Amino acid sequence: MKKRGPERLKSALSYLLLAALIIFLLFPFYWTFVTSIKTSAELYSQNVTYWPKAPTFESYRRLFSEYNFLKPMGNSLLVAVLTTLISVTVSVLAAYSFSRYRFKGRKFLMSMFLTNNMFPTVLLLIPLYAIMRKIGILYTPASLVLSYTTFTIPFSIWLLSGFLDDLPLSLEEAAMVDGANRAQAFLKIILPILMPGIVATGAYIFMNSWNEYTFAVMFTNEANRTIPVALKNLIGQLGVEWGMLTAGGIITIIPVCIMFFFAQKRLISGLTAGAVKG
Amino acid sequence: MIKRNSSIWPYLLVAPALIVVLTVVFVPVINAILMSFQSYDLRRPSRIGFNNFKNYVEVLKDPLFWGALWKTIVWVVAGVGLQFVFGFMLALLLNKKFPGRGIVRSISLIPWVTPGVLIGLMWRWIFDGNYGVLNDLLLKLGLIQESVPFLAQPSTAFPAVILTIVWQGIPFFAIMLLAGLQAIPDELYNAADVDGANSVQKFFLITVPSLKSVIYVTTLLRVIWVANSVDVIFNLTEGGPAYATQTLSVYIFNKGNSLNLGYAATLSIMLTLVLATVAVRYLKTMFQNQEGKA
């Protein structure tokens, strides 16, 4: 059946609208990248160009030679990896408990984890600063790992419980009938099947730790500054050197993009499962 | 195999997560409450001590607090409202089958995983009054006669930061609502077609009611996130010019940076109270839905 005129117009319009929305969402990235490969003469000329006349990676070279951008990248990596390992381990255990047991106080504990997200970051920031200083981990990566873990645990438990709820109980039951205990059944049967879900959750945690700014700016000093803080400082130091600033921006987002594409399918299904099923 | 007897295992498994959350959230929360009743200004360390409700009285008399509260409401309502409208639009468009849909769907999510500092940097450059691309586009289209310093004047700065947070939040809504849309059985639409319903009727009588719980949960979740967000505004304008973009979260962050911790704590308690009212409704919905499922 051929589409009628108005139908065709309607679908053309909807593609146009879709294209407009996608351009709106992606244009800032395009613009940042284009800016980072322009020469400064072109950057500050009166004519704004939408593709560089002479693309150059000079800004990137200068960024790494004049500013130590590798150090904050290493710091961010350390914090993100540690946070991911700890959060995932702790959350898998809790999610298993919430998904496989019905116990007194289950609902209360689950709401307690959820209310966690409700407290404004700024409310925790100030007392935490004092606490970190008192126990002597202020200005060490440990202070960030500890804070990030707390913020990522509730969400990870939510995601992982969703994945676990989807796994039929018969899997473990079969193993336990064969004489395995609960821990063996979990390690040998559940964990391998849950792996994609764990990877997605891990990627989510990694991205969050990599991106976080508010805590990082308060809890780090020169030596263990993470990448968002370094980027923000760069804005302060360079002011209007947009070539180098945008180069720094592109470098910051590359690991996030890699993580995201690696895990997006599972992450999306995990995120949405919780909301759609309730 | 779901055990209903009271074994110790479920508690042991939850314990590590609970301990971390308790030490890093509940202990500081209690500290913050205590601090809110104290004169706690690190620039005046000799005066640190309890002053009862003095901070709260001062907050209620503080015009910056009321200004920031009002800005928070506008920020959340306009920000989340527009995110929702455009996110819904995107979800409906992505729900149609077309080649490359998977790729479009995943790349449209990137703004959501972009660090706040980078969002601030990118949009600052777009809004720039001298070399900004937005000015260039508007000039070429003939919509403005001369460049506008969007972030430097109070009248345009607030709409500009709202536009930025809308940009960041569209993907979240789009992806959540898209999942909801895909869960609606086709039979419902087929039955409506038989009854001769037009697409507007189908939208309001089938689509919206079926998505009710997704809409409710995502909106409230987003309200809390947006109300708490500091980094986007802080990296665009730091709350300026002339406090034009200073929401409550940003005001608290600025107060904390200026080391008046007692007053900052009081302000954050006020923000928490406002948000708690919203969050309680959120939790209720969550559990109502869960019981409906079981």
Write a concise keyword list for the protein shown above.
heterodimer, A: 278 residues, mainly alpha, MetI-like fold, 2 domains, 78% helix, B: 294 residues, two-stranded antiparallel ribbon, 2 strands
Overview of the structural elements:
The complex is a heterodimer of chains A (278) and B (294). Chain A is mainly α and 278 residues long. Chain A has two domains: 5-26 and 35-56, no CATH class; 68-170 and 201-277, Orthogonal Bundle (MetI-like fold), CATH 1.10.3720. Chain A contains twelve helices and no strands. Chain A starts with a helix and ends with a helix. The relative contact order of chain A is 0.12. Chain B is globular. Chain B has two domains: 28-61 and 259-294, no CATH class; 71-247, MetI-like (MetI-like fold, Orthogonal Bundle), CATH 1.10.3720. Chain B is built from 14 helices and two strands. Chain B starts with 8 loop residues before the first helix and ends with a helix. The longest helix of chain B has 33 residues, at 261-293. By secondary structure, chain B is mostly helical. Chain B has a two-stranded antiparallel sheet. The mean pLDDT of chain B is 85. At the A-B interface, helix 1, helix 4, helix 5, helix 6 and helix 7 of A face helix 1, helix 3, helix 4, helix 5 and helix 6 of B.
Share of residues in strands of chain B: under 5%
State the shape of chain A: globular
- The CATH architecture of the largest domain in chain B is Orthogonal Bundle
Q: What's the number of extended β-strand segments of chain A?
A: 0
- Globular, elongated, flat, extended or rod-shaped: what is the shape of chain B? globular
- The CATH superfamily of the largest domain in chain A turns out to be MetI-like
CATH architecture of the largest domain in chain A: Orthogonal Bundle
Task: Tell me the strand order in the biggest sheet of chain B.
Answer: 1-2
| Ends distance of chain B | 16 Å
How many H/I helical runs of chain B? 14
Name the chain pair with the biggest interface and residue counts per chain.
A-B, 99 and 95 residues
* Main β sheet profile of chain B: 2 strands, antiparallel
| Helix-residue proportion of chain A | over 70%
Q: Work out the count of structural domains of chain A.
A: 2
Uncertain residue ranges of chain B = none
Percent strand of chain A equals under 5%
- Oligomeric state of the chains present here: heterodimer
